[in-house]
Amino acid sequence: MSKSKDNVDEQVDRGNDSEEITDDLLFAEYEDVRLSLRQELIIEPEDDVEEECIPEEVVRRKSKGRKHPYFYDFLKPCHTSCHIPYIRDWKAFLATEKYMVKNRLRELPITVDSTEIQYVQLCFEDLYTLYFAKRLVNEDDKPMITYYMIKSYNKKNALSWDLLKSIKYEKSILTATKFPFIGHLEFLYKDEQHIHLGFPFIAGYTLRAYLQENIRLDESLIKFYTVQLILALEYLHFVNIIYRNLKPENILVEPNGYIKLIGFMKAKYIKCRTYTHCMSLEYTAPECLNNLKGYGFSADWWALAVNIYEMGAGFTPFYCGIQEKTADRILNGIFKMPVFFTYDLKDLLMKMLYPDLRYRAGLTMYGIKTIKKHNWLSGSPWMDILNRKVRPPFIPELRNPLMERTFLSYDEETLNSNSFSKFCTDFEYDDK
């Protein structure tokens, strides 16, 4: 009997060892993928070839007239170099990050010398200027070139447009947060006229660019993106950060098929409520329009539902061309439901786009569980998607991202109600 017990104990011990080995192997696979993605963005220069440096004035002259925000649509700031370990326990990870983010908010971002940055091309110019640039750094006595997106703010314009608080929040939040589906600030540098934020370059494109080409997405792909957005928003809300800028323009699709949130100019660290109305009207929640009592994290969950609808239908649920009517539809919760949506997706959208906060999904006594355990999302491998172990339903095919011929361009055109006439037969009117 004693021998049999010893054999059983040995088998149990071996079983535990095998589980630990599998976890280590999974962690090693994750590290290999992360390092391979990192190496794709780093190119060693040849010894005999001199690197060209295009002055900023020449960059502006060459790119004159290109003001559309989607002209270089996949050149959006994001991060890959931020070390994010393999996450085994979601609740423990959130509890740890809540403490760490508070400490990181007090830290200053890494500053670099402006002489290390060489501008290559101007990508976008509006409230801020977006440059495609490269940075030459000597690591282990070897010159390494890393490509970045430089987001530059003019100090005079920031003062006149009252953007200093937004820049401060963006800088501190992107430095403090470290999550697989959220962008990260790599470095910061200043000069007499500008404030420059540096983000590692990723050769992807925004979800808006893909929707403009394909109109609407497959439901399996929508579900895959929705899981990542829910995890990202849950992480931000747990560390008391409200995003307030969730729309396809700020969802970056990476070359590996996963997404990242960018554009944190409107993000804010709050304790309970905020009263600033700064969201796009089509993605604004009813409580933001009735801004007497303020609003909280509910605005992000409402915007998530609008994005899910837009990914499946091709346009937002409350858009009608006139701002007053759009606001009235949002306040009353009146929208059209596509017939080709599945029953579970319709049910989820009806519950998430309910105008009354007391009965809206995600805000009841069970919280976010009412969304994560809904039938439409049941069976989703949450932890596997979080650790990027699931093969995405769609992987974009990108050519060499450093060549100008691969940049996406779009013609500016005005939207009108006639452009949606071909979808009229696919919709039914829904009175809520």
Explain what you see.
The protein is built from 13 helices and 13 strands. It is of the alpha+beta class. α7 (219-238) runs antiparallel to α9. It is globular, with a radius of gyration of 24 Å. The chain starts with a helix and ends with a strand. The model is unreliable at 1-82 and 402-432 (pLDDT under 50).
The gyration radius over C-alpha positions equals 24 Å
How would you sum up the global shape?
A: globular
> What do we call the CATH homologous superfamily of the domain at 205-387?
Transferase(Phosphotransferase) domain 1
Largest sheet: 6 strands, antiparallel
Summarize the structure.
With 432 residues, this protein is of the alpha+beta class.
List the helices and strands and how they pair.
Blueprint: H1 2-40, E1 42-43, H2 56-62, H3 90-105, E2 117-125, E3 129-139, E4 142-154, H4 155-160, H5 164-176, E5 187-190, E6 194-200, E7 205-206, H6 207-214, H7 219-238, E8 241-242, E9 251-253, E10 259-261, E11 268-269, H8 286-289, H9 298-313, H10 323-332, E12 335-338, H11 343-352, H12 369-372, H13 382-386, E13 427-430
Antiparallel strand pairs: 1-4, 2-3, 3-4, 4-6, 5-6, 7-9, 8-11, 9-10, 12-13
Q: Can you tag this structure with a few keywords?
A:
alpha+beta, 13 helices, 6-stranded antiparallel β-sheet, kinase, disordered C terminus, Transferase(Phosphotransferase), domain 1, cAMP-dependent protein kinase activity, 432 residues, serine/threonine-protein kinase, Phosphorylase Kinase, domain 1, disordered N terminus, 3-stranded antiparallel β-sheet, Kinase-like_dom_sf, globular
